[in-house]
Amino acid sequence: MIKRLGVLGGMGPAASAEFIVRLVEQTPATCDQDHIPTILWSDPTVPDRSTSLLNKDDKPLPYLLAGVKGLFSAGCNLIVIPCNTAHFWYSELVRQHPRITFIHIVDSVADALRDLNVTNSTIGLMGTQATIELGLYQYKLNKQGWDCIVPTREEMDTLVQPAINLIKSNQFEQAHDMFITVIHSLIANGAKAVVLGCTEIPLSVREDSVQGTPIINSIDSLVKSAIKQFKKGN
Question: Is the pTM of this model over 0.85?
Answer without folding.
Answer: yes
